[in-house]
Task: inverse folding
């Protein structure tokens, strides 16, 4: 199966896997699953570094390709269909990265591995517990 990992879950996988739910850890570890990472996640990490919310962000972005390869994750590019969908999702949630990940989930028909209930509120299928 294919799953889209939310940015926070990706960061936890790389640095603090114990913060992930047991179910999410098992899904990521299962070699029969394809774990997708939105291209928007690297943008989100770089943005959070720039505004001072993620001091380790520069190092993460600089080592992005090797981290992705080591983890055997697949990048999910952002398409114009994803961008359009993220802009028209209902609700007042203002985080553009959450909106993009939810839109990608809906268009690609895949669940998001995330603790963030905003993903569900945007209409995406979310897995955590």
Result:
């Amino acid at each position: 199966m294919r799953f889209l990992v939310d940015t926070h879950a990706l960061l936890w996988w790389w640095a603090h896997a114990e913060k992930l739910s047991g179910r999410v850890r098992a899904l990521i570890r299962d070699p029969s699953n394809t774990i997708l990472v939105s291209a928007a996640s690297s943008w989100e990490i770089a943005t959070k570094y720039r505004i001072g919310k993620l001091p380790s962000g520069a190092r993460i972005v600089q080592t992005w390709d090797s981290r992705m390869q080591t983890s055997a994750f697949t990048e999910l590019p952002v398409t114009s269909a994803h961008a359009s969908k993220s802009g028209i999702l209902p609700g007042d949630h203002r985080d553009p990265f959450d909106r993009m990940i939810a839109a990608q989930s809906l268009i690609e028909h895949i669940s998001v591995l995330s603790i963030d209930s905003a993903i569900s509120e945007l209409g995406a299928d979310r897995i955590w517990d």
In short: Residues 1 and 30 are 10 Å apart (CA to CA). The domain at 2-127 is CATH 3.40.50.1010 (Rossmann fold).
